[in-house]
Amino acid sequence: VLKDGDDIVSADYSGTYTIVYSGDSSKAVGLANNVAEPKINIEAISLKRSDIYQQWKVERENDYYFIINAGTGKALDLSGGVFGNKVNVWQYNLNKTCAQRWNFVKNNDGTVTIHSSCYPQYVLDLADGNSNVQVYKREGEDTDCINAHQKCVLK
User: 110-145: per-residue pLDDT in tens?
Assistant: First the structure.
């Protein structure tokens, strides 16, 4: 649950970024395979700043964003369009459904947490002990209490 003071829409995050997890700055959000097909899994992989498949175009529409892979043109999407803990994240053709709508909340330490726009209690999360990117219920009420696997740095 977002608490009072969490700002999801006043800052404009539009742009092209490499999304790096704050808990491991050597890992960036990218594709399991550099393929333009839909349903390719999203993982935290070794950071390569020149890798177009680790670059994401953040495009604002109304009060939410679409996060689109610069190499494939596919959107960050929840597998099967469902919400819940440990739901997998993959790339999919842009269809502008809730499964592809995201918001950014700036944390007190300067990192951001990427929330589902339709179900803001769910955030991008690096699965414990592996590289899989999933959604999981936001951990902690206060932005200082969110675990590193739910915080990102946009570079």
Answer: 889 999 999 988 999 988 767 899 999 987 665 555
Question: What's the chain's Rg over C-alpha atoms?
Answer: 14
Q: DSSP label at 88?
A: E
Three-class HEC string of 75-137: EEEEHHHCCCCCEEEEEECCCCCHHHCEEEEECCCCCEEEEECCCCCEEEEECCCCCEEEEEE
Provide the residue type at 41 as one letter. N
Among 119, 79, 113, 114, residue whose Cα is nearest residue 98? 119
The string of DSSP letters for 22-73 reads: TT-TTEEEEESS---STTPBEEEEE--TT-GGGEEEEEEETTEEEEEETTT-
Residue 132 carries which DSSP code?
B
CA pair distance 67, 14, nearest whole angstrom: 9
Q: What is the pLDDT of residues 74-113, one digit of tens each?
A: 999 999 998 899 999 999 999 999 999 999 988 888 889 9
* The token pair that represents 48 in the structure block: 């390569």
